[in-house]
Amino acid sequence: MSTAPKRVGVAADHGGFELKEYLAAMLREAEYQAVDFGDTRPKQDDDYPDSVVPLARAVSRGEVDRGIAICGSGVGACIAANKVRGVRACLIHECFSAHQGVEDDDMNVICLGGHVLGNAIKWELVRIFLQARFSGAERHRRRLAKVAQLERRGTE
Question: What pTM did the predictor assign?
Answer without folding.
Answer: 0.94
